[in-house]
Amino acid sequence: MTKLALAFDLGGTELRGALVERDGAVAARVSAPTMAGAGSEAVIGQIIALAGTLLAEHPQAKVAGIGMCAPGPLDPKAGIVIGPPTLAGWHDVPLIDILSRQFGLPVRLENDANAAALGEWRFGAGRGSGSLVFVTVSTGIGGGVVADGHIYHGRRGLAAEIGHMTITGEGDRCFCGAVGCFEAVASGTALGRRATRLTAPGDGSLLRRLSGDGDVSARHVVEAARAGDVNALELVDAEAKWLGIGFTNLLHLYSPELIVMGGGLANGFDLLAPGIRATIEQRAMPAYRDVPIVPAELGDRAGLIGAASLILWEGEPGAPLAIAQDEDSGPSKRADAREANHG
Amino acid sequence: MTKLALAFDLGGTELRGALVERDGAVAARVSAPTMAGAGSEAVIGQIIALAGTLLAEHPQAKVAGIGMCAPGPLDPKAGIVIGPPTLAGWHDVPLIDILSRQFGLPVRLENDANAAALGEWRFGAGRGSGSLVFVTVSTGIGGGVVADGHIYHGRRGLAAEIGHMTITGEGDRCFCGAVGCFEAVASGTALGRRATRLTAPGDGSLLRRLSGDGDVSARHVVEAARAGDVNALELVDAEAKWLGIGFTNLLHLYSPELIVMGGGLANGFDLLAPGIRATIEQRAMPAYRDVPIVPAELGDRAGLIGAASLILWEGEPGAPLAIAQDEDSGPSKRADAREANHG
């Protein structure tokens, strides 16, 4: 059996683990609700427990290392989770040190949007391209940029914080404190909020019927738009315009070969695409207008697969590491893997 | 004598040439008003004539190659000037081919903002940094990004078109057709326009006295602000806010180690800096707030020096080229230089 990577995608809601093969195939998956309020030790305990489950179920697996993604801000080179807003009690947690000591394996860390960008680039919608911008549109908006064969990190790995790019002077204040962030006007949350304001409980609208007269979510808007609901179609149009403005900026700033849209709202990609395209046609300078905008292909596996690829494909970020596809087994498996980097 | 590069900075108004040494020193300079309306052949004739002047004045110069910058859009790898709006009759001009055939020397081409970014990074305000974003604020706004030791090019060399990043929904329509471009609200032109609207010919304001009752320019605003004029100080505050919003986006998107501000408006950098800083403090996420924003150091030589460095320091963009600092002369000078790349 070829070598596998243990991969973890640490989200504010769910902690996912997987054994991933070198071709991006997911050999096994586990998950658990993240104990997001319990601090870093508890969550690291969950990671160790899930790893134990995966390894117990696949005792024959030769694990080359652990690829891990977590919410930003984090420093991928130093291997430190700086302080994600969705995880209480995480402050400068040296996750690579902790996990590599626990498992005696190489560990790589990347922020979740960057890992998903890598996953989509290597195994998903961006296969074969030289560069891409991955945009995840969900509760918030995040992004990752692949250029010249690697993640564009910037200082401290903090590049591509695209959700907090100012694109307008209007709209609700963003949780970050600014007005006009891409995320504040174009996330799934923003779309749901507009739909909720447009309707009222008991008004008989399709949006409220779908939401059981509760707050309307982006998912309800997409569902209602598919049914031809006029309100929902207008909301989708406005959403596509905001996405188109943000995407146009990404084209002008990064000039990627393609933009890949993922996240929950990618479920409505077919409905949004015409409006996104029209806005780009209208606003982008001519040389950027023909860049494809495509939906993500890996869904919620993108982060796991991208994180695994940090182990199986190359050592980025951080020190040299490139685990060879090694058919041998032996007592010095890890030493071999490390030597392979310097070969 | 060590080798020099011939460098040209082709602007819509002025064509500048220089002989540049390996340490960035400018050994000789020439310039001429660009025959911008006369088409590419006429302007290429001007380049050849200026080269002749420089070489005639410095017959002992050992020229290793020609580094050239020109307005975008251009394709640095293919060596093609695609069609700058400020130069009539330039459509897909293969400038590298033309000049290398003319001179029998290696030629490198880069867009002007990228060349200036390289110049400031190697010899100016960004010396010693690992990454920077260079922003030129003048008639328009342009930019160049250096990361991991080279220009961030993107597809067709079109990355960092930061002037056409949408940052608001208000203001005058940009020449590109969109509303809310960084350039449309924050360029020197935009500042001058606001000052012109705020005042009227004959109103006795300092701004109009400085402009001789004509249109007020950004330069007049800076001059009046230095004299303590209240109108001008308010205009500077508003300008700094717009620059701060744009710079915050650049921090979030590229996460550079520093931002270098050049262009005509950098003459007012000391007046603008407090307002830029305050806006960044207010809008940037905490991890980005301590990134230095500094004025450019090379002035209008940045493009020339950066273009020269393409020849003298490395082959970027395009094919391998690294002209050795070669004290020998001999008949096969260029062959030697090419071989040095593969050594």
From TrEMBL, chains A, B:
GO terms for molecular function: kinase activity. InterPro entries: ATPase_NBD, ROK, ROK_cs. Residues 330-343 have a biased composition (Basic and acidic residues). Residues 322-343 are annotated as: Disordered. Belongs to the ROK (NagC/XylR) family. This is Glucokinase. Keywords: Kinase, Transferase. CDD domains: ASKHA_ATPase_ROK_BsXylR-like (cd24076).
